[in-house]
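Hey, why these numbers?
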Amino acid sequence: MAEKEDLVEIVGSEGVSDAPEILAEYSKDKSFVPPIEPRCVVKPKTTEEVQRIIKWANDTLTPLIPVSSGSPRFRGDTVPTAGGAAVLDLSGMKKILWIDRRNRVAMIEPGVTFGELRPEVEKEGLRLLMPLLPRRSKSVLASALEREPIIMPRYHWDIGDPMLCTEVVFGTGDLFRTGAAAGPGTLEEQRKSGQAQKNPAGPSQASLHRVIQGSQGTMGCVTWITLKTQLLPKLQKPFLVGSHRLDSLTELSHWLIRLRIADECLMLNNSNLAAIMAKKWPEEYRRLRDNLPSWILFFCQAGYEYFPEERLAYEEEYMSDIAQRIGVSPVEVLSGVSAYELLAILQAPSEEPYWKLRHKGSCHDIFFLTGRDRLPELIEVMHNLASRYSYPVADMGIYIQPVVQGTSWHCEFNLFFDPDDLKEVETVRTLSVDAVNALMTEGAFFSRPYGPWADIAYRRDGETTAALRKVKGIFDPNNIMNPGKLCF
């Protein structure tokens, strides 16, 4: 076909595929979004090739579906919504462009995964600000664009962190750089003058990185980002706190973050912690789940280059006073789970198989932002709905993550299910839609709506929807970038 010949001219014959088995792989993921096969898959290697592909898509009115992470994928945002689309697979753009220890910044292309980037930054004495156990095939750039919460709220200053500057090709085919990277001067000239592309705001008063983040590829295609990193600590001391009362753990978390005496800080229910720690299935998983308290807070205190022992000593003293006042007991081993072992697990991408697939083979996530005081009632809403649908509440994973210095809280329900059990699949599918409706009604804020959630969210806010469509009309007037997603 003429279109394929045009793409071959841009990226070469090895960069374009319409083999049935390849198209089938990109036609679906582990979400409940209906499968649709794309027309072809095109794999650029440079920003120039991305620009030419987007201009070709405008000329031919071909929908483009940006993808950068490897399988398995989960949220339906990379599944075409109509036939005739071309998948723009950026996973071959794998350059780690530079790592700057002095400014704690790394610049990477879309195909760089957590498994690839982590050892490289560690060689420079740095560590990544990672989400909870990302899969090894997950694109670091995609994770930052999706605003996945990081497990170190101490270093989470803005909802956009750890993403800083970007290079983006908008749906018009125009190349643009955001933040300090916009200029003046080239990137090389900026670096010679001591700049590090670290300030995400701008250019001028337009912080366009906020338009790009969370847009699921509907505005354009990002070809590199800079992101924050942190120094590797010299000493670390992790703790576990178990309780059957969630409010005790959220209060301790609040003070740990407010006083800046913990780096990693997150909460899991017993089902999720067992799913992360178990080596033998299902015996060890069930034993851990049944022996652990309902809720577990994990946090870690760290000492860095200067006076690490002294820093750990005063942080632990402050922490102990707060814990005693609240009435909880931080320990290094809880019901057979070692805090040091969990720390080592959390500081790396997930081992294979991906931790959310170990229990039953598939998982559907429901997540939102809320305030600390609303967590118990929203969790109760979810428990009641699960019981109504006969979904076993004991098997449901829950992950709670303070974000932006603990000013907001990410709450995530992990619904594990057997993808070969049609009844179980249908239960989780219908439960998830009803749960989003019910949780939203009770005040849960779905800042990252995927699939059918987007319809629910945008129906409730007509003014935002109208504004976003105007912005879409500016940056992607022909509606070629991932059409059908969000409110487009």
